[in-house]
Each structure stands twice: as C-alpha cells, then as structure tokens.
C-alpha cells in the first residue's frame, strides 16, 4: 500500500483507517477542486458548488463509512466539470459544455491537445490508483469488493422530483445488491430505489463497469439523495446506518470470489465495438491508453 500512496495523482486521496483490506470504497466525485489556471472554467462560485461540479455530501459520508467498516477509500477531489472520471473520455458528456442548464465556458471549443492534457492529468491517475489497488489485493481466488458511492440531486433543472432517498444500482451480480435492498426496505421508513434514479441495467458508468464488472469482482453502487446528506451530521448518520447494514453482508467470506456469470460489455468497449482490454484490473491503464483519443 505504501507504493500506491507514493503514486497517487495530485487530486487522488487514499484514506485508510486499517483493519480490513478486502474492500475498497470509491468516490468518483468527492470534490469540486478546479486548479487556479483553469480560472474556475469561467463559472461563478455558486455554480461550482452545485451538484454539476461534484456529488454533494458524499465525501464526509464515505470517510465516516470507511472508518466504521475499517476499510480504505479512494477519493477523487477534482471537479467532474474538468473531466468526469466515471465516463469514457470520448463521451461528449465527459467534458461537458453544458450541464443541467449551465453553460461551462471553460469547456467550449477545446483543442484535442487540451482534452488529452485533461485525460492525462485528471482521468488516468484516478483509474491508475484503482487498478493498482486491485492488483495488490486480488490474489488467486480471492477477489476484493468495490463499493462505489454517489449522490444525486433531488431535482434536475427540467426534471421531476426524485422521491428515492437511496438507490441501489445493479446488473447481473446481485450478491450485495439484493440483500442490501431488503435490509434498507425492512424498517419501512425509506423510499428505496431498485435501479432508481439511475438504472444499472442501462449502465453504471466507466468506473464500476471497467474495474468490477469487466473482471467480475463483487461490487455495489449506491446513490444517496443530496438533501439527505447535505450537512455533516446527516451524512454521518447515513454512514452509520449503511455501516450497520453492510457489515454483516461484507462478513460473508463466500462473497470474496469472482462472479461466475458472463459480464455485460459496456463502458470498456471502444465506440466501434472493439474491446479495449480483456485482462485483469491491472490492465486498466494500458486499456485507457489504447483509446483512440490518446493515440
């Protein structure tokens, strides 16, 4: 793990309270940092503090959850407005020119060189850190668990109100999703989304699809509504609740094996249909460098 600490990118943080190295929490959109040379991407501070820039409330929740479970967490603190690490970099929405009613001046008319520079500085270090952690903790038949945490806005600019307080996304491998859905619903005090407000059937985004589904690692993706975790106290309360539910599920030793099903092909495929990579999670960086926009 010390090697990983030395190789983290400037906006990637490894938080490791110790005790367990079978599980890794991933927070793609932990922060809204924009380096000074980007001049805030031409946006006023109020816009840079909206959900369009990062997942509000998810960082303190993840940090508390990591402490409670005694597992490491990786945080990406660069704003998703610079480049979204949970999308393929050649996706037009990866460096958005407009998002939820807001035009992003600093993303308009970018040259190919500027886009490549953002990929190398912000996208690759994040996925390199994930891949190296997996490579260091996947041994023989032992497969580590990836827990991806996100938060979602209660309402998009032109959308309906989203009633779900928490959403569990899954597709195929439901070893964690199914029992957690049941545990969340059992008290009857929550509106729980099963593949809502986003559907795992349609796609998880790049991070979980590439690092977990491609290699059949056990995984879970949670979405928490942002008004539920907008304050430190509420975020910590949600972390405690999730820790109490997840701890017994993560204690099942049979979980730490590769899913026997056939992984769906999604985010790691090139637009023309050719596979970007077929090896272990440690191939993530080589795969990313094979993408046509990095040629």
Specify the number of helices. 8
CATH homologous superfamily label: Zn-dependent exopeptidases
Q: What amount of the residues lies in strands? A: 5-15%
Q: Would you tell me the structural class of the helices and strands?
A: alpha/beta
Flag low-confidence runs: 270-295
How would you characterize this protein structure?
By secondary structure, the chain is of the alpha/beta class. The chain has a single domain (2-294), classed as 3-Layer(aba) Sandwich (Aminopeptidase), CATH 3.40.630. Helix content is 31%, strand content 13%. The chain has 8 helices and 9 strands. The chain has helices at 2-7, 45-48, 58-69, 112-137, 177-185, 206-213, 232-250, 284-289; strands at 12-15, 23-27, 73-76, 98-99, 102-103, 145-152, 166-169, 192-194, 219-225. It has a 7-stranded mixed beta sheet with strand order 1-3-2-6-9-7-8, with helices on both faces. The chain has a two-stranded antiparallel sheet with strand order 4-5. Helix 3 (58-69) crosses helix 7 (232-250). The longest helix has 26 residues, at 112-137. It is globular, with a radius of gyration of 18 Å. It starts with a helix and ends in a 6-residue tail after the last helix.
